[in-house]
Automatic annotation (TrEMBL), chain A:
Enzyme class per UniProt: oxidoreductase
PANTHER family according to UniProt: GLYCINE CLEAVAGE SYSTEM P-PROTEIN (PTHR42806), GLYCINE DEHYDROGENASE (DECARBOXYLATING) (PTHR42806:SF1)
Protein name per UniProt: Probable glycine dehydrogenase (decarboxylating) subunit 1
Lineage summary: Bacteria, Pseudomonadati, Pseudomonadota, Alphaproteobacteria, Hyphomicrobiales
Pfam families, per database record: GDC-P (PF02347)
Domain spans labelled Glycine cleavage system P-protein N-terminal: 1-394
Classification via SUPFAM superfamilies: PLP-dependent transferases
Reactions that this protein is recorded to catalyse: N(6)-[(R)-lipoyl]-L-lysyl-[glycine-cleavage complex H protein] + glycine + H(+) = N(6)-[(R)-S(8)-aminomethyldihydrolipoyl]-L-lysyl-[glycine-cleavage complex H protein] + CO2
Source organism superkingdom: Bacteria
Amino acid sequence: MRYLPLTTDDRAQMLAAIGAKSVDELFKDVPEAARLDGLIDLPRRQGEMEVERQLAAMAGKNIPAGQVPFFVGAGAYKHHIPATVDHLIQRSEFLTSYTPYQPEITQGTLQYLFEFQTQVSMLTGMEVANASMYDGSTACGEAVLMAHRVTKRKKAVLSGNLHPHYQDVVANLSDFGSYKLVTEPPCPKGTEGLAGEIDEETSCVVVQNPDIFGHVRDLSALAEAAHAKGALMIVVVPEIVSLGLITPPGEMGADIVVGEGQSLGNGLNFGGPYVGLFAAKQKFVRQMPGRLCGETVDAEGKRGFVLTLSTREQHIRREKATSNICTNSGLCCLAFTIHLSLLGEEGYTRLARINHANAVKLADALGAVPGVNVLNEAFFNEFTIETPKPGAEVIDALVEKGVLGGVPLSRLMPGNDEMKNLIAVASTEVNSDQDRAAYARALKEVLA
Amino acid sequence: MSSMNAKGRPTGTGAETGFAPHETFTGNRGLVQEEPLIFELDSPGASGVDLDEPEDFAPRLGGVARQGRIGLPGLSEPEVMRHYVRLSQKNYAIDSGLYPLGSCTMKHNPRLNEKMARLPGFGDVHPLQPQQTVQGALELIDTLAHWLKELTGMPAVAMSPKAGAHGELCGMMAIDAALRARGEEGTRKRVLVPESAHGTNPATAAQIGFTVDSIPATEDGHVDVKAFKAKLGPDVAAIMLTNPNTCGLFERDIIEIADAVHEAGGYFYCDGANFNAIAGRVRPGDLGIDAMHINLHKTFSTPHGGGGPGAGPVVFSQALAPFAPLPWIVHEKGAYRAIEHEGESTGQPFGRMTAFHGQMGMFVRALAYMLSHGADGIRQASEDAVLSANYILASLKDVMSAPYEGPCMHEALFDDSFLKGTGVETLDFAKAMIDEGYHPMTMYFPLVVHGAMLIEPTESESKDSLDLFIATLRDLAESAKRGETERFSGAPYLAPRRRLDETLAARKPILRWQHGRNEPASKAAE
C-alpha cells in the first residue's frame, strides 16, 4: 500500500521489540464478540489511476458552474479565484499543519489568522473578529447564543428574510437550548418592519443584508430600536463582496456581525467547506465563541502571535465554555485572506462595483422579458424575479436550455404559496454580456 | 585557508574566519525571514488582480453606498506570493516531519485527494443547483455514506456536521429528540462523561441544556465501571465515551457499559475521534453504540489545514436513525435525491445543523482515501498505527514514565514523573523537542494523568523515522536526568520565535492590526 511505509520485516522487528507475537495481541482488550477476523465487505485497495477514474466519472455527471451561464446564489456565490490562492493554500506548511498550539513553530498560521481577523474587522466595520467559524449559518447560530449570554435574556427575533437554512440552524439551537424564538414571515418586497417585535425580553434581532431576496437596506433605525430595549442587533452578511460597496454593518449600529466568507478565495464546493465570519464590539470579546489570535512578544522581545483568551474555550472551560467549537475553517481563512490581499482596497471595491453593475444589467435584461417582474429596488449582486410560471419549473426548463438561472425560492420555503413563482437570481463578475443575453433569451422561450 | 577548485573558486566552508553574527542587519537568519504584517506592506493603489472598471451605470443601492476607505493594503501579485510563502516557512507540518500530537491524528495527506476535490464537477458545483445537474455529487455523498455505515456497522449516517464537535452536537441532539419522542426530555437531563474526555464532550452536552456528571477513571486508565453503574438512574440521558479512550486504551468493558446504559433507559454516545485505531478491525455497531461522530480529518486523512476545515459525519443506531437531521440523500428509480425538508421522505428529522449539505470538499478527499486503501488497506493502516504507538511505548518506558501498562492502541501516554527532581519542567521538555526538529506531542491532556504527554505517531512513519524519534526522546530524557537544565529552560532556541509571552497576550489583548498602533517586528519592517 503506497501510503504505508512499514515493511513486513519492520513489523516483525517492531513486534519483537514490544514482545508481542502478533498484532492481534495488541488488540487483546477488544471484547471477543466484537473482533473482526476477516475484511469488511468493501472493495480492496486501488492505485491512483483507478481511484481517479472512478471519481472523475462521478464528477463528470455534474454541470460545473464554469461551464454554463450561471446565476445561482442564495448564500453561495461563483467568483473568479486568482490562481495564486490555490497554489499558496496547497503549500505543505499550510495544508498539513495542525491548529497552532505550539506558537514558536506555527507563526505562519498565527500571522495569517491575525491578518484575517483584521481584514474581517475592517470589512464589517467592527472592532474585533475571531479566527472563523464553520460557515455563515453556524456563525449565525452562535451569534444568537452569544447575544443571550451578553444580555442574560433568552428571546431572539429573526427576520423572515434571513436565509431559511440559517433560520433552521438558529431554530435548532434555540429548540434544544430551550430559548425563545420569534420568526417573522418572509417579506419578498423587502419592507419588513422588525422593530415592533423587540421587547424587554429580547436579547437580539437578527437581520440579513442583503437579505434572501437580495434587498439591501439601511439598518440604523432597527439598531436604535433594538438598543432602546437593551437588545443587540446581529447582522448577517451572506455575500462578503457586498461590503466593498455597501455601508458596513458596524456603521449601521450592529453589535455582532456574522457572514459567509466563501466568496473570497473559496470555491462553491457543493456547499462546503466555507468560512464563517464572526465580528463584534470589543466589549463583548470575552463572550465570543471560537479561536482568537493575539499579538505578543517572544523572549527576545520580537513580535509574535499566539492563540489567546482561551479560557473561553472548551479545552480549558469544558462545560462552562462559550461554545463547543474546536476545529474551525483555518485553511479557508487563509484562502480568504490571500484573495483579499491580492485584491487590496482598489481591487476589492472594484470587484464589488462590477458585481453590482452586472446585476443591474441582468435585472434590466430579465425585467424586459414579457411577464417577468423584478421585485427589488435596491440590491447588490442578487435580486428576485417573479415569473408567470412556478419558479421550480422555470429553472428546470432553463437547465434544458443550458442555463443555470438561479434558486427557486419554493426550494428554500416549500409550502409557502407566496414563494411559488419567485426566483433568486445572482450575477457576479464571472458573467459576460453573452451570458446575460443567453439567460434573457432562454427565459423568454421558457415563458412563451 | 580555503582550498580552490579547478576554476580557481574557493570551496571551503569559511568556518575558519570565526565570524558568527548574532544579529543581522535585516533581522533575517538565512532562510528564516522576518516578515511584516500584510498591512505594513501597503503600496496605496496597487492590486494583484486586474479588473476593468465597469462602464458608467446608475447604482441601485438604495442610499447605503459605503463612504470612505476600508483600509485594505494594496500589493502586486509577486509581493503577495512572497509574503505568504515566507509565512508558510515559519510553520511545522506533517509533510516536513513527524507530528506526534496525540488525539489529533497527523497522518499523511495524499495529494490525489486534493486533486480529486478540485475536479470542477465537485469543486465548482453550487449546493442549490437543480438536482438533475448534480447527480454525481449526490452519488459521491451516498457512496461515502455507504462506506461509513459499513465500516462502523451502523444503519444510518448524518453527513452534514462540519467538524467533530459539530458532530457531537448532532449526536446529542438526536438523543434529545429520541427522549422527546418517548416523553422523557424533561426528566432525563444528566449526561455521564468520563473525566478523561475531550473538552468538547462536556461543552457539547452543556450547550443543549444537559448537566454533566463526571465519571472517575480506574488506576489502570479505564472507565470505573462500578462508579459508572452507581451513577445510572432514571434521570440519565446518555453516556459520552471516547473509545479507544484518551489514554490510548481500548475500553475493554465497553459492551457491559453499553448494556448497562441501555438497561437504564439511556443512550450511548461515542466520541469517534480515535476511530483510526480500530477502523477495519472493530465495528462500533457491534459494541452497542447509538451515535458516533467520525472526524474525516483524522481517520480519513483530510488535511488539518492549520485548524480546519474538518468534517464530522455521525453514524446512528436503529434507535436514533429516524431522528437524523436534514438533509440526506435517497436513491430511487435510478436517481439520487436530496431530502431537504421534513415530509419529503420518511423519518422525523430533529432539524438542520448547517446550511446546505455539509463539507463536500472533505467528502471527496475522504472517499479518495478510502478507495485508495480499500477494506484491506484501512485495516492495515489501523494495525500499523497501533503497532507504531506500542513500539514507542515499549522503547521509551524505561527512560520516560508510562502510567499504564501496555498494550496501548494508537497513542502512547506518558506522565512527567520521570522529570521529578531534574529541575526540568514538563513544558520545557516539549519546547526542547522543537530545537531537535520535532513538533511536541499533546501536552497536559488527558487531565487524568499528571503532566500528560500523549504521543500519536500514526501509520505514516517509517521504522527509521520512529527510531530517530525514539532516540531523540531518549537523549532528551537522559539529558534532563543529568541536570542539563539550560537545554530545556530557554527552549526553543532555534525556532523562528523564542518562547512567546501568552500571559501578556491575554492580559492586554491585541486582536487586530491598527494603523500606527502595532510595532513592527524587526528592522526589516521599519
